[in-house]
């Protein structure tokens, strides 16, 4: 009885945090290139991710998934997190989405109900496909002399055909993420290719559904043009410094902690970004929009309300991916 109460309480807590929401499909048919000329996308929406307290000791800047930016298919959530001593994300379930954790500072340990465990260090990424269901814990590494854990977590909706697949992980340490150098290794710009392709460099990460993810580091003032597939949703998030997007047409300087949603016109083959300060950093993320509805209840993301009801029942009954829901406890989360 206690276990059943605990399970129900946990689900309600997650539902309260992420909220129950239904988002209708906003699929845009793929747009074919009108010509071979490179034209930059422009900023069509700006959202400042305001820092807020989350849990005990965590601070989160949320843009995608907030009231200001609910629907950006295939993206469900973007958190820029900082975790103080004693905080973390203990045992919780997922179904129907991929969670992408990219550490910029410090490190974070993880452990799941399928026996998988590891550690994501600064500059490394974990790309977890929750599929039909997984229970896991994410606990930042803390202690004297240890850098404060900071990073980004992105939730990406899975295409309907992948929502009930077996869970999977793709993990890369800092040395496993390839870099592109548009002006050469001694040039002012480094692009870490977390997924996708940049300036002839391919990432080994293979997401379910189209998703490109780049960490762009301007050591000195400079500019780049990053290709983006036609018809894809795309946005930038500024970690530090200042930039201009498509400076040939727009003179506004964009500042840190803003998510910039980009246009997707017929002839716009990518995005032109100019750093107006040294040591500027941002991420460029793009994904193929999905022609399906989104129904989210806490950490469960499906395409219909009936599917969500089934996910809740499966979790409560301990089946279809949640066989250990009532018996498993992580070591790192307790």
Topology, pairings included?
Blueprint lengths: L1 H17 L1 E4 L19 E6 L2 E4 L3 E5 L12 E9 L5 E6 L2 E9 L1 E6 L4 E5 L3 E5 L4 E7 L9 E8 L10 E5 L6 E2 L8 E7 L1 E2 L2 E2 L8 E8 L4 E5 L5 E8 L2 E3 L12 E5 L7 E6 L4 E8 L6 E4 L2 E3 L2 H13 L17
Antiparallel strand pairs: 1-25, 2-22, 3-4, 4-5, 5-12, 6-11, 7-10, 7-12, 8-9, 8-11, 10-13, 14-15, 15-18, 16-17, 18-24, 19-23, 20-22, 20-24, 21-23, 25-26
Total helical segments:
2
Are there runs of 5+ residues with pLDDT below 50, and where?
1-9, 12-36
- From the N-terminal CA to the C-terminal CA, the straight-line distance is 21 Å
Structural class computed from helices and strand pairing: mainly beta
Described by strand count, sense and barrel closure, the largest sheet is: 7 strands, antiparallel
Give a count of the beta strands, DSSP E runs of length 2 or more. Answer: 26
């Amino acid at each position: 009885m206690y276990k059943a109460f605990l399970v129900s309480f946990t689900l309600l807590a997650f539902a309260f945090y992420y909220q129950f929401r239904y988002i209708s499909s906003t699929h845009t048919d793929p747009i074919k290139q009108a010509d071979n000329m490179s034209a930059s996308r422009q900023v069509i929406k700006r959202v400042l991710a305001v820092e807020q307290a989350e849990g005990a000791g965590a601070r989160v800047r949320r843009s995608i998934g907030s009231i200001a930016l609910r629907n950006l298919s295939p993206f469900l959530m973007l958190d820029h997190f900082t975790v103080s001593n004693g905080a973390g994300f203990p045992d919780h379930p997922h179904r129907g989405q991929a969670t992408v954790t990219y550490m910029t500072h410090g490190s974070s340990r993880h452990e799941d109900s399928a026996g998988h465990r590891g550690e994501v260090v600064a500059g490394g990424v974990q790309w977890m496909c929750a599929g039909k269901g997984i229970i896991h814990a994410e606990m930042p590494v803390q202690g004297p002399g240890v850098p404060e854990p900071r990073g980004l977590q992105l939730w990406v909706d899975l295409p309907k055909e992948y929502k009930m697949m077996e869970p999977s992980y793709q993990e890369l340490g800092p040395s496993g993420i390839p870099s592109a150098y548009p002006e050469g290794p001694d040039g002012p710009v480094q692009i870490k290719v977390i997924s996708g392709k940049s300036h002839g460099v391919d990432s080994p990460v293979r997401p379910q559904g189209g998703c490109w993810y780049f960490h762009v580091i301007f050591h000195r003032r400079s500019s780049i043009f990053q290709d983006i597939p036609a018809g894809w949703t795309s946005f930038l998030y500024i970690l530090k410094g200042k930039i201009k997007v498509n400076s040939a047409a727009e003179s506004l300087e964009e500042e840190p902690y803003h998510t910039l949603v980009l246009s997707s016109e017929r002839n716009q083959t990518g995005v032109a970004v100019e750093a107006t300060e040294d040591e500027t950093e941002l991420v460029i993320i793009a994904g193929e929009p999905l022609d399906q509805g989104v129904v989210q209840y806490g950490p469960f993301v499906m395409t219909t309300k009936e599917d969500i009801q089934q996910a809740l029942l499966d979790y409560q009954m301990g089946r279809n991916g949640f066989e250990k829901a009532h018996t498993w406890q992580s070591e790192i989360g307790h």
